[in-house]
Write a structure and sequence with these properties.
The protein has 330 residues and is an alpha/beta fold. The protein has helices at 39-46, 48-57, 123-127, 130-143, 162-173, 187-192, 205-210, 229-233, 252-257, 270-281, 298-306; strands spanning 2-5, 14-17, 27-36, 68-76, 88-92, 106-110, 114-116, 153-157, 177-182, 196-199, 215-220, 236-244, 261-263, 289-294, 313-317. Bound molecules: NADP nicotinamide-adenine-dinucleotide phosphate.
Length: 330
């Protein structure tokens, strides 16, 4: 199989050939057709706690980054019951299970990491769902219980990113009112999905958000320390929750001691993947894809993602072979 790997944080991702390994009885091999880029993919390369965790509990050998994938099952172990060879699926790899990442022509995972795709859902649209969708679902349902609160109100900071766009659409599906903070160029997109947009380039976004609150959920889906936690908490209803996608050292005390501050973990397992697939098939979630790169140009996709201005998702295609930025497929 072909994988994109990086020997150290200072080196670019390169393609290399790894031998395919034999399956354990409960494992499934998926031939990968589409891969979505998440910021965790390039953050993992840079070091920090995630890279450290990968080193201690992850697989040995080269660092193959990536989590999200969609593709077709090419082989199943004898104990697999829920899936068959040829089934189109979406899923997420898990290094805590010693699995290599999804920047590869094939991945090996277990049954509870997959959901079957209907014919109507493309591999590209499906690949956008796992990490972004699981993060949105956890914040909306597990933390804020918007499915049990008619007329719930949700504020999304970072509304035009992969997580933000998915959260707006999932919030609307569950009947919640969504308010999204984004820059000028993304106001029309955010509003087209049914959210009230607040343009953060035109003044204090949280002050503007106050007039649409209070909120059952404030989702801080911006990677940098942009919106102070205290100001986010001040916008909540008494039983509301702030969900932090990046747990910042400054917030550790509040995370440890406050019931209304929660750290997100976008771990995609079958039950949530099935909800996301059904919503995408019903066009309740329409993934927004900014650009598609050949797998061999993953480094360019990481440069784009780490600039923090991606609208929706970036995709990688193993089938396109290696390439340059001139070969980006829109
Ligand atoms: N804990 C977890 O399990 C988990 C899961 C998923 C993601 N994450 C983290 O969550 C963060 C977001 O992920 P993502 O995939 O959504 O990232 P992304 O797609 O790269 O987000 C980019 C978006 O952020 C917006 N943005 C930048 N600065 C902003 C600001 N000051 N206010 C509002 N929006 C701003 C940009 O919009 P404009 O161009 O309009 O500024 C852009 O559309 C990343 O740091 C990621 O690592 C964590």
């Amino acid at each position: 199989m072909i994988v994109a790997t990086s020997k150290s944080a200072a080196l670019p991702l390169t393609l290399m050939e790894l031998p395919s390994r034999a399956l354990e009885p409960d494992e499934i091999r998926v031939s990968v057709r589409s891969i979505a880029v998440n910021p965790v993919d390039w953050k993992m390369r840079r070091g920090g706690p995630l890279r450290l965790a990968h080193r201690f509990i992850g697989p040995s050998g080269p660092l193959v980054v990536g989590v999200d994938f969609a593709g077709e099952i090419s082989e199943i172990g004898p104990r697999v019951q829920a899936f068959a060879v040829g089934t189109r699926v979406v899923g997420a790899t898990d290094f805590a299970r010693k699995q290599l990442g999804s920047y590869a022509s094939e991945v090996v995972v277990k049954e509870d990491q997959l959901a079957a795709l209907p014919e109507s859902l493309s591999f590209d649209d499906a690949a956008c769902l796992p990490v972004a969708g699981a993060t949105a679902h956890q914040a909306l349902i597990d933390f804020a219980h918007v499915d049990q609160k008619p007329g719930a109100s949700v504020l999304i900071l970072g509304a035009s990113g992969g997580v933000g766009l998915c959260t707006i659409q999932l919030a609307r599906k569950f009947g919640a009112k969504a308010v999204g903070v984004c820059s000028t160029t993304n106001v029309a997109l955010v509003e087209s999905l049914g959210a009230k947009a607040i343009d953060y380039t035109r003044g204090d976004a949280l002050a503007a958000a106050r007039s649409h609150g209070p909120y059952d959920l404030v989702l801080h889906a911006v990677g940098t320390l942009t919106y102070p936690l205290a100001a986010c908490r001040a916008l909540l209803k008494p039983d509301g929750t702030v969900a932090l996608v990046v747990q910042r050292v400054a917030d550790y005390f509040a995370l440890a001691t406050s019931r209304n501050v929660r750290g997100s973990l976008g771990r995609a397992r079958s039950p949530v993947l099935e909800v996301l697939v059904a919503a995408a098939a019903a066009r309740e979630i329409t993934p927004i894809i900014e650009a598609t790169f050949p797998l061999g140009s993953a480094e360019l996709a990481h440069e784009r993602s780490s600039a923090g201005k991606v609208v929706g998702k970036l995709l990688l295609h193993p089938s396109l072979g290696s390439g340059t930025i001139g070969e980006i497929v829109k």
